[in-house]
């Protein structure tokens, strides 16, 4: 696409932004359902969910490392990137973590509806970054005004808006955030011409998980509990934290050792959350999510991990929203502190 045609279409995208955004449902960043602008097939339960990591691993560029122009294959086709991007807009917390991992501060980012609008572990690095809406309600007009030269997002979040976004700037989409976080990061590296740097970051992560595996005594099972408004989840292997535990060789309780994002249970069945260690948190206010009430109930207090002082509250915006290498590294450090002291 030429620059002139992209500029012309950007005007149309701006005009359509209000109509498009009002069709999107407001939800939290970890709501894995189709929110009106996302692609249903790649959400939990969708036919393309389970293979998102393998499919994403096939994407990228054949250009020499760091060389431009380049063509990038991504979830929505191919995108031509003429020069090394300098003004990047990110549409989810994973892409925000990814670019910061590579030393790039974006010009635009989205906010979440969790306890922190911006993940707390990244907040100090993005104080001056413009907000372009929430994850599920993008403001295309603000994005256009930022004059980006690259937009990074995913089909899960904004598939229906891809053409409008691409009319503003070259846009590269992964399939979905979450468990394919390493493959997504590699794709971001390809789009930025920083594939070697991305490989170095992932190699550092791999060494850290191997060190954790060596440091943990025995084979303890790790249970993951997340309280959310109107739902209670036990997280499975197809999640950010599930992938990290697997990379570190850490076992899961049988109920959570599943190739799914999560198992949803009722608070009355919280006794199913057992494991040698339990890590728990809330997406939002603990009073609103039911965490405060649940932790005083017998189903919780009777868990062996609770009785043995092996139940730990963790930061939600790291353990469940830290969808990139910086967040993953902090989780590995946390696990090392909890499991090896």
TrEMBL record:
Example of a GO biological process term: iron coordination entity transport
InterPro entries: ABC_transptr_periplasmic_BD (IPR002491), Bact_iron-sidero_bind (IPR051313)
GO CC aspect terms: outer membrane-bounded periplasmic space
UniProt subcellular location: Cell envelope
Keywords on record: Signal, Transport
Domain of life: Bacteria
Signal peptide: 1-27
Main subcellular location: other
Domain Fe/B12 periplasmic-binding: 87-341
Annotated region (Disordered), positions in chain: 57-79
A Pfam family annotated for this UniProt entry: Peripla_BP_2
Stated family: Belongs to the bacterial solute-binding protein 8 family.
Name by which UniProt lists this protein: Iron-siderophore ABC transporter substrate-binding protein
Organism: Brevibacterium aurantiacum
């Amino acid at each position: 696409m030429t620059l002139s045609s992209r500029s012309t279409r950007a005007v149309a995208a701006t005009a359509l932004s209000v109509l498009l955004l009002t069709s999107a449902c407001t939800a939290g960043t970890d709501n894995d359902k189709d929110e009106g602008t996302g692609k249903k097939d790649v959400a939990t339960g969708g036919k393309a969910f389970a293979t998102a990591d393998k499919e994403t691993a096939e994407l990228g560029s054949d250009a020499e490392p760091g060389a431009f122009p380049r063509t990038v294959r991504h979830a929505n086709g191919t995108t031509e990137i003429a020069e090394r991007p300098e003004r990047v807009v990110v549409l989810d917390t994973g892409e925000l973590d990814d670019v910061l991992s590579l030393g790039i501060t974006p010009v635009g980012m989205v906010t979440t509806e969790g306890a922190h609008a911006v993940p707390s572990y990244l907040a100090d690095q993005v104080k001056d970054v413009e907000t372009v809406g929430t994850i599920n309600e993008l403001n295309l007009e603000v994005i256009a005004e930022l004059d980006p030269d690259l937009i990074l997002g995913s089909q899960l979040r904004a598939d229906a808006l891809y053409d409008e976004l691409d009319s503003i700037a070259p846009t590269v989409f992964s399939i979905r955030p979450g468990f394919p976080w390493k493959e997504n990061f590699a794709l971001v590296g390809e789009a930025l011409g920083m594939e070697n740097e991305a490989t170095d970051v992932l190699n550092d992560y791999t060494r850290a998980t191997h060190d954790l595996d060596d440091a943990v005594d025995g084979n303890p099972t790790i249970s993951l509990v997340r309280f959310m408004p109107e739902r209670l989840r036990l997280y499975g292997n197809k999640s950010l934290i599930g992938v990290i535990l697997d990379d570190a060789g850490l076992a899961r309780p049988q109920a959570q050792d599943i190739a799914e994002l999560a198992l949803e249970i009722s608070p009355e069945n919280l006794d199913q959350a057992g494991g040698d260690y339990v890590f728990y948190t809330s997406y939002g206010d603990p009073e609103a999510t039911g965490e405060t009430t649940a932790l005083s109930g017998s189903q919780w207090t009777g868990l062996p991990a609770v009785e043995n002082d092996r139940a730990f509250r963790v930061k939600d915006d790291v353990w469940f929203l830290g969808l990139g290498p910086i967040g993953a590294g902090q989780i590995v450090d946390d696990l090392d502190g909890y499991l090896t002291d």
